[in-house]
Design goal:
Length: 306
């Protein structure tokens, strides 16, 4: 049984296969075709956190593939009314694949331990693999290749940054992160990336201008993620010099695109001028969540279309 809990779960070849499926499905989508390759299949959406992009993109994507989806909120009693093993083993009898958006990464790992259907991580405090796959797919789509590409991430080494660094290592993309001291990747994570991927493509700095100097894409995320609201005032001070604004984008190559996983706090980690610039690809990036996730579902279920 294959799961997508983190990008450590899949190989470079498998990511490229997912991208190839996404290419096919997106081409057909743009032609007005919704190829029903998963008729009768059911997707369960087990969510502890609010969502726009993750929920809607998965629900719409499953409908395009000919299947259906069920949104499972707190009323199903996950972790409250019965043991995790009982809950997961029973739910696995009803649905073909489960997307889980959880407060704790351990919760998704627990699901994968007992599930008899594929589990997809829709976001945890540690990892956001579907976001990172869509982001690298967007960069590939923009430039036609990932060979020789450089992605600069400005901000906290959070779940999104962690997944982006790993995806970049898997696909040979140079990844530069600019973050204040205390908000950078820990050594254990970097060593694991190098061990699993056989190489290290991650560079760390506390100078945003240095990070973006050769970037094909400049990326940022909120300074205080869900669950970190109590730290917001401190983080605003600590990250004040790490805003992605017009002046910083001028330090990057002229054709560097801007990416953000959204939702954004405009005026904090990024300015309106950058968000709405000609180089911004935030809408295309969000749209690619659906196309790549359709491919992930199809790949996990062993169905890739015609």
């Amino acid at each position: 049984m294959r799961h997508l809990v983190t990008l450590f779960d899949i190989t470079t070849d498998e990511i490229n296969r997912i991208f190839a499926i996404a290419d096919d499905l997106k081409t057909k989508y743009k032609q007005g075709l919704r190829e029903a390759i998963l008729p009768g299949r059911v997707l369960g959406l087990l969510f502890e956190k609010p969502s726009l992009r993750t929920r809607v993109s998965f629900e719409c994507g499953m409908a395009h593939l000919g299947g259906s989806s069920l949104f499972l909120g707190e009323d199903v009693g996950w972790g409250k009314r019965e043991s995790p093993s009982d809950f997961t083993r029973v739910l696995s009898q009803y649905v073909d694949v489960i997307v889980c958006r959880a407060k704790s990464h351990a919760r998704v790992e627990e699901l994968a331990k007992y599930a008899t259907c594929p589990i997809i991580n829709g976001l945890t405090d540690y990892s956001h693999p579907c976001q990172a796959l869509a982001d690298l797919y967007t960069l590939r789509e923009e430039n036609g290749t990932l060979d020789g590409q450089c992605l600069a991430y400005i901000g906290d080494a959070n779940n999104v940054a962690r997944s982006l660094a790993l995806a970049s290592a898997r696909l040979g993309v140079q990844f530069a992160i600019a973050a204040p001291q205390g908000y950078q990747f820990d050594d254990a994570f970097l060593k694991k990336v190098e061990k699993e991927c056989g190489t290290s493509t991650v560079t760390t700095t506390n100078d945003p201008a240095q990070a973006v100097s050769s970037a094909n894409a400049v990326y940022t995320d909120v300074w205080a993620s869900m669950g970190q609201e109590a730290e917001r005032d401190k983080r605003q001070k600590d990250f004040a010099a790490f805003q992605v604004n017009e002046q910083l984008m001028q330090q990057a190559p002229n054709d560097a695109i801007f990416l953000h996983c959204l939702p954004a706090r405009r005026g904090e980690e990024v300015t309106d001028g950058v968000m709405d610039s000609a180089n911004s690809r935030i809408v295309e990036q969000a749209a690619n969540r659906m196309h790549v996730q359709k491919a992930v579902i199809a790949w996990l279920l062993g169905v890739s279309g015609k």
